[in-house]
């Protein structure tokens, strides 16, 4: 009679162990994302700001400045905040900033692509995870193809943003810090300073980066990232067997609106679409969710990430800064209105390209390097 109770008790204990292990691994995953972002920001922030400051009247060039700057520091929120500050100071017109904001939307998805490479050893898992990462790219690319020409000729984005600015201007702002950022910030700083100290590049609580320190920090960040993802995927497979999987599929990812709201709300809380997308990529790779299920979630994340720019702009009290931040939100909202009903367009494109990557992984490497770095560098500097 006690055997069933013992079995039930051991199952419960096993589940608790899995959840604790998952929580620890998620902390390491978030730490790796934070660390990677901080490393790139500290080493490349000046170059990124110089790129943004060199915005021209050519919307095409400005678009690729946004892509490259965001790919370099891996944070559309940071790039958007820099752009907002430049507009607020009068260093840049908000009309020049609009294509850059659209480019930042494309550049931010590089983090999800990097995460997908964590499953590169398994061809099928890599195919699925890579498709989950680049569906975000295609969604944004197709949106830019539609809305950049519309903005140039009709000012639909800037006109809508100006209308909303007139309504919102004068309202007080509140600041909001990501709770997840607070969880890993101290550990991230400690690792950075400790490694920099070994190279003799730490002074006054600050890191002074050179090429060697950058390389070591990238290796450490990616090692933590890929290791945590491997074990997260394995544990999630075990947890999501049975009733829990049914609940998630039924109440979150089985409905467009619920998946969309989940992605939007989660990104509002963590203030990073990179984290939101990166968490789901390996789960798609493991076969726990389909591309069709997570697409609305990614679309919601795209809108949720714009809150940082809005907060930064309202703090400045500058009307043009608020307008450019709202352009980001309006673009993502209009893009969602079009591609949620027409989701098979970006989904089919992602599947087609991931099939190429399945046959030859160099397609995936080429996509990452060419789209985020080679083409922008050629357009901007040549």
Characterise this structure.
By secondary structure, the protein is mainly α. It has one domain. Helix content is 83%, strand content 1%. A hairpin with a 2-residue loop joins strand 1 (202-203) and strand 2. The longest helix has 52 residues, at 2-53. The chain starts with a helix and ends with a helix.
Summarize the structure.
The protein is mostly helical and 382 residues long. It is 83% helix and 1% strand. It has a two-stranded antiparallel sheet.
Question: What are the main properties of this structure?
Answer:
382 residues, 2 strands, two-stranded antiparallel ribbon, globular, mainly alpha
Helices and strands, with pairings:
Elements: H1 2-53, H2 59-73, H3 76-89, H4 94-107, H5 110-116, H6 123-154, H7 156-168, H8 179-198, E1 202-203, E2 206-207, H9 211-239, H10 243-253, H11 256-270, H12 273-285, H13 291-304, H14 307-316, H15 319-339, H16 344-359, H17 362-381
Antiparallel strand pairs: 1-2
The strands making up the biggest β-sheet line up spatially as 1-2
Shape: globular
Low-confidence spans: 170-176
Radius of gyration equals: 21 Å
Strand content: under 5%
Report the end-to-end length measured between terminal Cα atoms: 78 Å
Structural category is mainly alpha
Mean pLDDT: 82
Largest sheet: 2 strands, antiparallel
Order of helices and strands: HHHHHHHHEEHHHHHHHHH
- The figure for the number of domains is 1
How many extended strands?
2
Helix content: over 70%
Q: Helical stretch count?
A: 17
